[in-house]
Inverse folding.
DNA sequence: GTGAAAGCGCTAACAC
DNA sequence: GTGTTAGCGCTTTCAC
């Protein structure tokens, strides 16, 4: 590995001068600068970022912790962060938390050990206190998809409740009166918020949702399929189905098809997230758009700003809104229910 | 930030002793060890990995460069690497190359600057010479999904040609004789290999593939849709369609449906990759499984081994095979062609 | 405009 | 069993 000393020796200058040239600093003669540049080129010298980090106390690195990168929601999140990182010349360090509190903590610690300037954390299971303590210790920590009032300034989140309300109202406006809901078995945060939004909107419209019409399952395709099978087995009648996410919505459609029901003719289905997969199914899925890439980009910028403790903190919230993507899985309700 | 010196001072020992305790090294008295451990705990001391890296000349970090993390194929790849990394206590550094040669090189350089021990590279566009030079400079570099004979030892790849042959033979065995192919517009490596495999198998079975029956487009859903529209517009008749990947296959099915054709009754469709999305569409897609997660896991292990230059290199190849996942998009050919 | 030197946090060889 | 010390590669202050 060629070091700054090697360059200095070959160019016949001090390491200080080489450092100046590398950083395009002033106070270097033109001839000298040219010579040093040439040597750097010839030797293929590249500064060791670990050494730089040691003295600069900053690594120009942004860390990301998400449950599982292979899920396209999180891959998209990572992409948003990466875009911001690239623009600001930061590196990306990533870690999967695998939906486990302990490995989430391990992941964060490992990022801290590396002295990441900024950390973007998607945490579903750690409790608020843990997160607040963490935020206290790490200036550049930003939570994505979670809202904790005490550290509102560090939370970039989506208004799940209002998104759910919007979806529900959309279905009501289409004339639907018989609803069913497929939600995640983990009743933390998002699922709860969304179900609340649905219930409130229904009530507001003098419609009701039977407890039996809410089916819980794991938040994936299989879960959605299973949930609808249960609904059908229980004899629940509905013309409109709200799913926790696109994956569950698609699983739900499979179950509906298998039961001889048509989407949207017999049952209208609405998803959540607007993943690429929502365009793969037939009919294409009407869904609530989750602007996760923009949010992640924004979160990364925010985290970088916060990490610079010399800057004043503007104490504001960072709330994003969802909007509906109309495709083909919803139509007007027929007068006669199925 | 609390440093090793702080711990040493508070515990009334030297930094060497603290270091020994941190690494569970010998030559430390029991009482002393306990005291130091206590202080570490109280102060919340964590070693600075940058400083460690500087002296150890190793970062315990594995870098990954893929085109775009938001595509689930690459997210899955990243997961495979991460699994291996976690097991061996390595950190993950990630970078998107965005399908551009220059940002691919930037990404690799940035990983090198960080002194990553191992690097997993998914490169589609860099030429062989560049890659060979790179491999020369970086002992822990492993190429995934690419085969370059000169550095066979560093390539973890899938036998695309034989996978394509297998898919084609499968269709032939189902009685199909009229084929069409939807492939990627970028005729580099994989697409070429797969089309070759298809042609060879057809020829072997005394079947032919008209040039007009091969449509090129971008390798996504929209591309697949467009490609089939072209095929149909040209009046090509086929009962079996081989797509470059699942995304294109699904787009193709959309186009088929829109033209009033049924899958699989009128046209059997086969994909490639076996992404989650292959189970989202209707009918569920029969496809060639690409074991990318296992491959990535394997590649990470290989890269870590190679990075230890003290170990002897075993000069072998790392070839993975694909197998067919039978779902619902393929049936036996009818006697009368559509 | 350029260089000498201190020091970032840590490890490891060596001394005691 | 424990401490001293040199040095990893780099930046930056201070002289000159």
């Amino acid at each position: 590995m060629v070091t700054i000393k090697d360059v200095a020796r070959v160019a016949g200058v001090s390491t200080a001068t080489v450092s100046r040239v590398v950083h395009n600093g002033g106070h270097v003669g033109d001839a000298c600068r040219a010579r040093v540049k040439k040597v750097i080129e010839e030797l293929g010298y590249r500064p060791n970022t670990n050494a730089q980090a040691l003295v600069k106390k900053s690594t120009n690195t942004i860390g990301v912790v998400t449950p599982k990168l292979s899920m396209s929601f999180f891959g998209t999140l990572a992409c948003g962060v990466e875009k911001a990182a690239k623009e600001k010349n930061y590196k990306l360090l990533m870690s999967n938390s695998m939906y486990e509190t302990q490995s989430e903590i391990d992941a964060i610690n490992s990022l801290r050990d590396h002295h990441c300037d900024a950390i973007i954390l998607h945490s579903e299971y750690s409790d608020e206190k843990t997160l607040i303590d963490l935020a206290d210790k790490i200036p550049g920590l930003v939570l994505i998809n979670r809202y904790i009032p005490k550290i509102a300034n560090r939370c970039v989140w989506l208004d799940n409740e209002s998104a759910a309300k919007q979806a529900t109202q959309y279905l009501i406006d289409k004339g639907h009166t018989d609803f069913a809901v497929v939600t995640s078995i983990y009743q933390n945060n998002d699922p709860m918020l969304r179900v609340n939004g649905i219930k409130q909107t229904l009530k507001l419209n003098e419609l009701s949702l039977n407890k039996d019409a809410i089916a819980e399952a794991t938040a994936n395709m299989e879960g959605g399929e299973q949930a609808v099978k249960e609904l059908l087995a229980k004899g629940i009648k509905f013309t409109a189905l709200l799913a926790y996410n696109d994956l569950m919505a698609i699983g739900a459609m499979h179950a509906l098809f298998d039961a001889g029901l048509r989407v949207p003719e017999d049952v209208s289905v609405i998803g959540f997230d607007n993943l690429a997969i929502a365009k793969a199914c037939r009919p294409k899925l009407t869904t609530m758009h989750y602007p996760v890439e923009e949010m992640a980009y924004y979160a990364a910028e925010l985290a970088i700003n916060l990490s610079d403790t010399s800057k004043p903190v503007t104490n504001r919230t960072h709330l994003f809104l969802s909007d509906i993507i109309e495709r083909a899985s919803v139509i007007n309700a027929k007068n006669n229910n199925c």
